């Protein structure tokens, strides 16, 4: 039986849903004081509206926070975002929210799995244990092919 984790029991970070440059694409900006909970330049699992995606957590060009520019169906597409649909764009469009508003990022499994939700909403996540490094290396090699 799969263990489930409520957003009420996770560490939650308040981030900002910002506009990426002059485009209409959304991105999640995590403040510098919360950056330690998010590994930079890594592909991680992200849950949005009960669907699991992959995202690259990036360092901004200036500052010490973190950025998530998109949610993608596979790790390969998260590494090469031009090859697939950005599910963060869909999620934001369906929310009827504005740029500059808050988004909550739940730390389901530190360094491995996160969830996003709007303030005032509750979410339940399937607990997924992070694989050991050797298995993760093998999985990445398979994904790269």
From TrEMBL:
Q: What segments bear the compositional bias annotation Polar residues?
A: 1-13
Map out region (Disordered) in residue numbers: 1-28
Q: Which domain of life is it from?
A: Archaea
Check the record and name the InterPro entries matching this protein.
Answer: DUF7112 (IPR055536)
Listed name of the protein: Uncharacterized protein
Origin organism of this chain?
Answer: Haladaptatus pallidirubidus
């Amino acid at each position: 039986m799969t263990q489930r984790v409520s957003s009420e029991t996770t560490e939650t970070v308040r981030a900002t849903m910002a506009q990426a440059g002059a485009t209409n694409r959304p991105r999640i900006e995590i403040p510098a004081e919360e950056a330690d909970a998010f590994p930079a330049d890594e592909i991680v699992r992200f849950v949005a509206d009960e669907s699991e995606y992959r995202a690259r957590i990036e360092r901004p060009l200036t500052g010490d926070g973190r950025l998530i520019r998109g949610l993608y169906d596979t790790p390969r597409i998260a590494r090469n975002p031009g090859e697939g649909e950005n599910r963060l764009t869909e999620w934001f469009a369906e929310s009827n929210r504005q740029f500059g508003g808050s988004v909550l990022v739940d730390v389901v499994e530190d360094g491995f799995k996160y969830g996003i939700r709007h303030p005032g909403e509750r979410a339940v996540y399937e607990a997924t244990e992070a694989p050991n490094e050797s298995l993760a290396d093998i999985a990445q090699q398979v994904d790269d092919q």
